[in-house]
Amino acid sequence: MKTVIKTTDLSKVYNGGAAEVHALKNVSLEFKQGEFTAIVGPSGSGKTTFLNVIGGLDKPTDGHIYIDGVDLATMKESKLFDFRLRHIGFVFQAYNLIPVLTAIENVSFIMLLQKKSKEEMERRAKEMLEQVGLAEKLYVRPSQLSGGQQQRVAVARALASKPDFVLADEPTANLDTQSAFNLLDIMARLNKEENVTMIFSTHDQRVIDRARRVIKLVDGAVDNDEQFDR
């Protein structure tokens, strides 16, 4: 399988007043197409920072992030926006759905920015909402959906534009047990069917138990990297 993400000596330092915070320390990792990976570690270990940096939402202090040979660390912000739009899907802990838009409009939003045709947007958005079990909720706004349903809309949105990979930051943190299991079943199935690389940051043992690769960060550095046959 081809490498879709490669980081070399990735570091991130935040200047927090009197003291510097070393959120990432020389992280060098590779991710292959189709991986289902959990990034784990205690609070403050650098999980979310790592996702934000490899997703182009934050700039590293040092090091490089190569995606299909393109270095995000040196990319200008204008080009970075377009790159994220076309290559990366995001699933946030807080869902980040647009309240005034229906489920199908939320899922279509990224494709609208990509200037897809109306017909293609509607077809793909319906397809993805059906895939996540929300065929009956196409025209419902987020306030009328449960937390689990909102997170499923967020997953459908992340995958609708056919990104190279999806970054999910604590996607099950706000969900009850059954909703979390349902979401993980959906993401595992879509990972295989769509062959999309999925990388989670998580504390949730339910996610860790499903991951085929678990990378542990401690104090911003890689402490362990294990592969599982699942």
How many strands, what sense, and barrel or not for the largest sheet? 6 strands, mixed
Instruction: Label the overall shape.
Output: globular
Helical content band? 25-40%
Q: Poorly predicted ranges (pLDDT <50, ≥5 residues)?
A: none
- Gyration radius, in Å: 17 Å
What is the percentage of strand-forming residues?
25-35%
* pLDDT averaged residue by residue: 92
Strand order of the largest sheet: 6-7-8-3-9-10
The helix-strand sequence is: EEEHEEHEHHHEHEHEE
Strand segment count = 10
Number of helices: 7
Query: What is the end-to-end distance?
Result: 17 Å
How would you explain this protein's 3D organization?
A hairpin with a 2-residue loop joins strand 9 and strand 10. Helix 5 packs parallel to helix 6. The protein is built from 7 helices and 10 strands. 38% of the residues are buried. A 6-stranded mixed sheet has the order 6-7-8-3-9-10, with helices on both faces. The protein has a 4-stranded antiparallel sheet with strand order 2-1-4-5, covered by helices on one side. The chain is α/β, with parallel strands linked by helices and 230 residues long. The mean pLDDT is 92.
Helix and strand layout, with pairings?
Elements lengths: L2 E14 L2 E14 L3 E5 L6 H8 L7 E6 L2 E2 L5 H11 E4 L11 H11 L4 H14 L15 H14 L4 E5 L7 H18 L2 E5 L3 H4 L4 E6 L2 E7 L3
Parallel strand pairs: 3-8, 3-9, 6-7, 7-8
Antiparallel strand pairs: 1-2, 1-4, 4-5, 9-10
Helix pairs in contact: 3-4, 3-5, 4-5, 5-6
